[in-house]
Amino acid sequence: MGIYSQIKEQVSTREVAEHYGYKVSRNGMMRCPFHDDRNPSMKVDKNFICFGCQEKGDVIRFASKLFGLPAYEAAGKLIEDMGLLVDLENRPDAKPGIRQKAKRKRQDDVGFQQTLDRVYNVYCDYFHLLNEWADVYAPRAPNEDLHPLFVEAMHQRDYVEYLLDLLLFGSKEDKAQVIIEKGKGVIELEKRIREFKSGDRERTSRNDGSALPAEVGGGSEGASGSDGKRTGQEHGIKRGNDPVL
Ligand SMILES: [Zn+2]
């Protein structure tokens, strides 16, 4: 995958705008930096479009216009500023300086990067599953028993999103910390997600006891929860409460 695609996959224009200090309203509007904009007339999400000056494009174009840089330099700046993980090898059109630097870094800690990617992907998949469960298993009636997967989604979503933030934008120490603390749990979570993906939904959803995965519950060492207890449901899994972080 090309460098631009990798960047676009990892970061939205909105995140970049906010990173550089632009105030974005809840519905994604901000004052356009490309014309004299009194009222927010630029919509930012994955891409951007200004209803005032008609400027529009993707995150690369946004950064390129914002800093007056050619696209490949804007890409390099985004990688650095946003702490993105981009594979620059086999990219003859990437700037040699960037490629060299990335290569040195890769040689330094290629193992770390691989682990980081793996952990990130697992939590990303998990996050998507949680969002799906929050929707699919939402109670349809007020007195309906809550589905365990819905409960899990409610309990875990914010926390997993927080982990993803750390893994993407945290310092190297933050990332290492997550990897070290979550290492074993990630492998079990990976296995569980694989089961879900392979259509083994019934088995897993029936498995009430482990529906709240101890593996992300902080400090329970990935116990499978086979004792039927919802380990971690009430403690340590909310943002900021995790003893691990
Ligand atoms: Zn504009």
What does this structure look like?
The protein is mainly alpha-helical and 245 residues long. The chain folds into two domains: 3-94, Zinc finger, CHC2-typedomain (DNA Primase, Chain A, Alpha-Beta Complex); 109-216, no CATH class. Helix content is 53%, strand content 4%. The chain contains eight helices and four strands; from the N terminus they run ααββββαααααα. It has helices at residues 3-10, 13-19, 59-67, 71-82, 96-136, 148-169, 172-197, 201-206, and strands spanning 29-30, 42-44, 48-50, 56-57. A hairpin with a 3-residue loop joins strand 2 and strand 3 (48-50). The longest helix is centred in the middle third of the chain and has 41 residues, at 96-136. The model is unreliable at 203-245 (pLDDT under 50). Zinc ion is lined by residues 32, 34-35, 37, 42, 50, 52-53, 55.
Summarize this entry quickly.
By secondary structure, this protein is mainly α.
Amino-to-carboxy terminus distance: 33 Å
- Please state the CA-atom Rg, rounded to the nearest Å: 21 Å
Bound ligand species: zinc ion
Q: Kindly give the count of domains.
A: 2
Structural class based on helices, strands and sheet pairing: mainly alpha
Residue fraction in strands = under 5%
SSE topology string: HHEEEEHHHHHH
Q: Would you count the extended β strands for me?
A: 4
> What's the helical proportion of residues?
40-55%
Q: Output the number of helix runs.
A: 8
**On the 0-100 scale, what is the average pLDDT?**
78
- Global outline: flat
Contiguous low-pLDDT stretches (5 residues minimum) are 203-245
Strand numbers in spatial order across the main sheet: 1-2-3-4
Biggest pleated sheet = 4 strands, antiparallel
